[in-house]
Write a structure and sequence with these properties.
The protein has 328 residues and is an all-alpha fold. 78% of the residues lie in helices and 0% in strands. It has twelve helices and no strands. It starts with a helix and ends with a helix. The model is unreliable at 1-33 (pLDDT under 50).
C-alpha cells in the first residue's frame, strides 16, 4: 500500500526509526561520519535494488485486487458486499504488521523482516493458486497484507536513512507504481486474451515473490537483530534517556506532524486503493466497457501514479514539502 514519499516516509519513520548508519559511512573532510549512500558501501547498491523489487511486488499485490474483482465475483458467485472483503482483509494484516514491526526489528533485524515479508507473499500466492474457498481466500489476502505492511515500513525506514533519501524514496515508490501498472495489465491479458482462470495470475506473483525472498535475504543477511539493537543504542548515546511511545505521540514537537501525516496517509491510501480497485468494475457495469479496455483503465491509473512519484522529489526540492503536499 504506498503514497507520496514525503508523507509516507514520515509515517514509516515514526513506526520504525532507524539510526544513522555509521559502520560503513565515509568520513567527511572534518572527520565526522556521513550517512550511507545508495552506492556506499558498494553492497548498498544491491540492497536498494532488493528494496525496489520488494515494493514492486507490493504494488503487484495491491493493484491485482481491482483487476481480478469481476472475475472473483463470477468465480465465487458472491455479491458486491461479500467480494468487498477482498479490500478489507489486507487491512487486518497491515494493522498487525504495524503492531509487530518494532518488536520484529529488535528481535530479528532487517534480515528477519526480509524473510517474513517475502514469506507471507509466497504463502499468499500459493494459497491463491489453489483457488481455495472464498473464506480461505480472504485469509490469504490478510497474509498478503501482513507481508505488505512489513515490507512497506521496513524498506521505507531503511531507504529513508540513506543520504538523499527524498529522491530515493521517490524511486522506491515509483517501483511500487510499476508493480501497479504491471499487475492489472498482465492479469487482464491472461484472463481476457489467453482465456486463463484468474488464479493462474498468481503463478506470476509467486515467481516475483520467490525472487523477492532471495534478493532481500541475501543482501540483508548481516542485518541481524543484534546489529539493529547496537545501532539504536549507538544513535541514542549514553546520556540520552529513553522516551516512551506515549510521550513521542503526545508531547514532543513532532507529535503534531506524526498525527497529521498519519491522518493524511489514512485518507490517501483509502482513496488510492478504492479508486484503483473499483474502476474496472465501474467501467464494466456502469460504462459497459469491453473487458480488456476496462482493465487498462486500472493500468492507466497506476501509470499516472508512478510518474507522479518519479517527479515529486524533484518538485519538492524546488518548492518545498508544504507546497508540494498542498498541490498534490
Amino acid at each position: 500500500m504506498t503514497v507520496q514519499p514525503i508523507a509516507e516516509t514520515q509515517a514509516a519513520e515514526k513506526a520504525v526509526e532507524l539510526p544513522p548508519a555509521t559502520e560503513f559511512a565515509a568520513p567527511d573532510r572534518g572527520g565526522s561520519p556521513l550517512r550511507e549512500t545508495w552506492h556506499h558501501p558498494r553492497s548498498n547498491v544491491f540492497r536498494v535494488a532488493a528494496c525496489f523489487w520488494s515494493l514492486l511486488n507490493l504494488g503487484t499485490f495491491d493493484a491485482a485486487y481491482g483487476a481480478l474483482l469481476p472475475y472473483l465475483q463470477q468465480s465465487y458467485s458472491v455479491s458486491y458486499v461479500t467480494v468487498s472483503l477482498v479490500f478489507l482483509s489486507p487491512l487486518v494484516g497491515y494493522v498487525a504488521s504495524g503492531v509487530l514491526n518494532a518488536k520484529l526489528h529488535n528481535n530479528f533485524g532487517q534480515r528477519g523482516l526480509a524473510i517474513l515479508c517475502s514469506g507471507a507473499h509466497i504463502l499468499s500466492a500459493v494459497i491463491n493458486i489453489l483457488k481455495p474457498p472464498f473464506p480461505v481466500l480472504v485469509v490469504s489476502f490478510m497474509i498478503a497484507g501482513l507481508g505488505n505492511g512489513l515490507s512497506d515500513a521496513a524498506w521505507n525506514a531503511w531507504i529513508g536513512n540513506l543520504e538523499r533519501s527524498n529522491e530515493l524514496l521517490g524511486y522506491l515508490h515509483a517501483a511500487y507504481g510499476v508493480g501497479g501498472v504491471f499487475s492489472p495489465l498482465v492479469a487482464t491479458a491472461m484472463i481476457t486474451r489467453a482465456a486463463l482462470a484468474w488464479n493462474t495470475f498468481y503463478y506470476v506473483v509467486l515467481g516475483i515473490s520467490v525472487v523477492e525472498m532471495l534478493a532481500l535475504t541475501v543482501t540483508f543477511w548481516d542485518h541481524t537483530g543484534r546489529r539493529y539493537r547496537e545501532q539504536m543504542a549507538q544513535s541514542q548515546g549514553t546520556d540520552d534517556k529513553p522516551v516512551s511511545m506515549r510521550t513521542t505521540l503526545t508531547t514532543l514537537p513532532e507529535a503534531r506532524i506524526a498525527w497529521l501525516s498519519a491522518l493524511f496517509v489514512l485518507i490517501y491510501i483509502g482513496v488510492e486503493v478504492s479508486v484503483g480497485g473499483w474502476v474496472v468494475e465501474f467501467m464494466l457495469d456502469v460504462r459497459h466497457g469491453e473487458a480488456f479496455a476496462s482493465g487498462m483503465c486500472a493500468t492507466g491509473y497506476w501509470l499516472g501514479m508512478t510518474l507522479g512519484r518519479i517527479i515529486l522529489p524533484f518538485v519538492t526540492r524546488l518548492i518545498g514539502p508544504l507546497w508540494a503536499v498542498s498541490v498534490c
